[in-house]
């Protein structure tokens, strides 16, 4: 006989109320994925320097064309509010003060992955595809490459491609701006 446990899922509203009421502490690094509160991995130096490099790169290349949201929430639906490493957003004068950005506000999501690579590839990518996020990048620190996911359909992406040093890439929403993989990956050791 197998025992099947029933779990209770949370909505974004309940999750935010837990944070407001102090049930989730301000310094806790968690995100809401499919109704479950998921503890986020600690940040290593390679990971942190990669995020910093990308912040500088996107400000230099795109400036006022985007709002660059760093490790802050985006609301995908009623039960998922992840905190991607970087979100390139459509600019708004209110900087999304009334509500977190939704899928239609997002040009690109970037996840920097080392110890979280499988989770990002299989859980987060399908979540983003289901929400119709048009483009997602995974900075794959293990394989020292960029994984690009485009054209969502249901829970997957129709175009998946890896890029390595020496190659160039553009963001689908900004085809006029080419980025090199050296700029994106830097010197990964």
Model description:
This protein has helices spanning 12-20, 45-62, 117-130, 181-185, and strands at residues 30-33, 36-39, 67-70, 86-89, 106-113, 135-140, 145-153, 156-163, 168-171, 174-180. It is of the alpha+beta class. It has a single domain (43-185), classed as tt1808, chain A (Alpha-Beta Complex). The strands form 3 sheets. The protein has a 6-stranded mixed β-sheet. A hairpin with a 2-residue loop joins β7 (145-153) and β8 (156-163). The chain is globular. The termini are far apart. The mean pLDDT is 94.
Question: Given the structure, what is the number of helices?
Answer: 4
Low-confidence stretches: none
Morphology call: globular
- Average predicted local confidence, pLDDT: 94
Oligomer: single chain
How many strands in all?
Answer: 10
Q: Considering DSSP H and I runs of 4 or more, what fraction of the residues is helical?
A: 10-25%
Taking the sheet with the most strands, its summary is: 6 strands, mixed
What portion of the residues fall into strands of 2 or more residues?
25-35%
Sequence of secondary-structure elements:
HEEHEEEHEEEEEH
The number of domains is 1
CATH superfamily: tt1808, chain A
Per CATH, the class reads Alpha Beta
Domain Putative restriction endonuclease: 12-181
Pfam families: Uma2
Protein name: Uma2 family endonuclease
Keywords: Endonuclease, Hydrolase, Nuclease
Reconstruct the topology from this structure.
Blueprint (H helix, E strand, L loop, with lengths): L11 H9 L9 E4 L2 E4 L5 H18 L4 E4 L15 E4 L16 E8 L3 H14 L4 E6 L4 E9 L2 E8 L4 E4 L2 E7 H5 L4
